[in-house]
Amino acid sequence: MSPRPSHPSLRSWRDYLNLVAQGFLIGTVDAVPGVSGGTVALLLGLYEELIQSIRSMADLKVIQQLVRPREWGYLWSQTPWRFLLAVALGILGGAFTLAHTLEWALIHYPQVVWALFFGFVLASTVLVSRRVQRWKLHYAGLFLVGGVVAFALAGAMALSTPRALWAFFLSGFAAICAMILPGVSGALVLVLLGKYQDVLTAVTNFQVVPLAVFGLGAVLGLSLMARLLTRLLRRYHDATLAFLCGLMAGSLRRLWPWKVWEEVREETMAFVEMVNNTWPSFAEIETWGLFGLMGVGFVVVWWLERLARGRSGARSSTSGVILMGGE
User: Fold this and answer.
1) pTM for this structure?
2) pLDDT attached to residue 133
3) 1 in a domain, yes or no?
4) What's the pLDDT tens digit per position in 209-232?
């Protein structure tokens, strides 16, 4: 399969700045266990183009052309590297800025953060489900399967893995495969593998070797998962969306603000220690405040989706060319 043209000339510098801003949102929430950056990408209308762009850049022919300077002109003009670079810069910016603020908030005000993100993911699930052109019985079955998978992952107990380089490689592979799926949090997978704190420490202390090995695993996982999702979205679009909606719905278990806490230890991140969801007390003002925050998260996402829908309509011809065609 040769890379499909991404028609970069149809995007202005303002469009690319907007892509950086959208990537910033993806990177910010990706660092929070229980929230998926893929959910944000799907909500903002970037998901299918992002998957297809990653798939085209991971093609063997493109990799071969990278080592042939004479063919760089074709790669420069015909591959979606500008789109991917803009989104990647935003993701990195979000991961290294607001993500730290969110981590602090999760330690000191966890219920507030969970309530906001519960509304966020709930609204995203509703909105994305509307993109399935016609719901059928087997689509509902796929929705339930996705929900059960995400629900089980959200309630799984964290494992303990060594700080060996092979563990960083496998963690990078697993986390990126989860991160690219709406409703499955890459950070949560790191928590379940017992690698969240190790990776966070490697980032803050600039430990090059573990991060490089982690990155290699992520690149391999990203390439393989993008190829799989591209094929599924092209051949079974509505069925795939139904399954992804189920993943998002099931992940709400992790985001329920009312939990029974086993213990709180800041050095291992307080949100790792929660064990069971519980029902809130409706006699407390705090309960209604948290429900209000859920509503705020829901409304904000609904508003963002309307903005994204307006922008995607303006460039629908571009996306159509990118996403259509055979292998």
Assistant:
1) 0.66
2) 84
3) no
4) 888 998 888 888 888 888 888 788
Place of tokens 């991060």: 211
Identify whether 163 is part of a domain: yes
Q: Please state, in angstroms and rounded to a whole number, the distance separating the CA atoms of residues 177 and 288.
A: 36
Residue 197 lies in a domain: yes
DSSP string, 145-167: HHHHHHHHHHTPPP----S-HHH
Q: How many domains does the chain have?
A: 1
3-state secondary structure of 125: helix
Predicted pLDDT of residue 142 = 92
Tell me 205's DSSP state. Answer: T
Asked, for residue 98, whether it belongs to a domain, the answer is: yes
Q: Please give the structure tokens belonging to residue 175.
A: 């986390």
How many C-alpha atoms does 220 have within 13 Å on its Cβ side? 12
Question: Which of 36-50, 237-251, 288-302 shows the lowest per-residue confidence on average (mean pLDDT)?
Answer: 36-50
Q: Count the residues in the chain.
A: 327
Place of tokens 């055979």: 326
Going by C-alpha positions, the residue among 34, 81, 3, 10 that lies closest to residue 183 is: 34
The rounded distance, in Å, linking the Cα atoms of 89 and 292 is 33
pLDDT in tens, 230-241: 788 888 888 988
In the chain the beta strands, taken as DSSP E runs, fall at 259-261, 274-277
- Residue-number span of the structural domain to which 268 is assigned: 8-323
